[in-house]
Amino acid sequence: MMLHGLATDVKIVFVSSNLPRRCGIATFSADLMAAVKAADPRVVCRVAAIDEPNERRRYGGEVRWRIRQGDASNYRAAAEAINRSSADIVNVQHEFGLYGTWTDGVYEDHLRPFLEALRKPVVTTLHSVPPEPTLSMREAIRSAAELSDAIVVMADAAAGILAERYGIAEVPVVIPHGMPVIQPHGRGRMKKKLGVPDRTIISTFGLVDPRKGIEYMIEAMPAIVAGHPAALYVIAGQTHPELRRHDGEKYRNQLVATVKRLGLENHVSFIDEYMAQQDIIELLLASDVYVTPYLDPQQITSGTLAYALGAGKAIVSTAYLHAKEALADGRGILVPFRDPAALAEAVKSLLAQPDRMQTLERASSAYARDMSWPPTGEHWLALMRLLALSSPAKSGQPGLPWSRANCGMGSWRARPGAGLTGATQPAPPRFSELSVASPTGSTMRHHQS
Description:
By secondary structure, the protein is α/β, with parallel strands linked by helices. The chain is built from 15 helices and 19 strands. The strands form 5 sheets. The chain has a 7-stranded parallel sheet with strand order 3-2-1-4-7-8-9, sandwiched between helices. A 6-stranded parallel sheet has the order 12-11-10-13-14-15, with helices on both faces.
């Protein structure tokens, strides 16, 4: 089967927070755009950047529109501006805080007016799919599914939750969270580079806030140090900007106070910086054990966990949704929430059994091999090209609301090593069966390597 026109440039608008805003969604979107461009340099990426109220950043040339977070009319105006552009398709990176506000526990959805006004095909990526949503949050996600031409989630668990808890019949596309290509070796060399050649490194990275449960890992350290005196817990990352705006450094100060109270000054280290990707990779490569002691059982996506898997780390984590899925089949150790003793026991068991730690490292690396950005970017580009090229606007009917039904789009899934496959009946063709024109103009088979 040949999709004529796949060799043409595609113009994609990403609606998201954008670097230099210090936000996980901004980092993800930057990585995704780079991966799509790497898959085909002819792709044109533009951004509608979401800014906090009263914030005006200096962006690069990719940002063509700005959206004032919290102002529903701004989202609608952005959609109308995108309608007037030459964009072929729009990708919304959704997180509740970026697309709405809460008043007395009720969520006011600002994505709906955007999608209602938009006259371009749109793929919405759901970074959060709470299993126990409030009524208003449930309606916001149902609205996004109804008004989008495809929904993308990053874990199989999210697909099940959308059906069971949100009553959404359409099966979403499942594309795993991408990660940079990391060669999992050089631990000793990286420890020397970081100035800790003789230490046993346990690490956590990311924006620091109380949802991360870092205090429980700090409280686990005395038991670890008792058996492993060289142990050093490295907490890397700045305080989350939203938390700092409201509470200053209260949470970080509490963590520092706990370190002092437990006499752990030589065994806990803070890197109070916003970590560049290369810095993150070097820290992970130097680490012996990576820990995510997070507190939200409903967390469906963790970029830091994805990075640690890509780096081939032995991982200890609380049992939130993404961790339960990613660390299944013996790929990591899951522990209860808010349990310093369990965290300590899990870390100690790995440090005492180097063979087991190496087994987990190999399992992490193997699991993540097909989830790196190059193949993941190819999946994204294949999906968006298919939707863009099936749009009525491509057939001389600009301005018509576009829907999945207009192009016979089924539901799709992307799995490591399996390509993108249909998940409803009748099954659409597999992406791995589509002939895709390469950047040189020849034809190649598109599949996940």
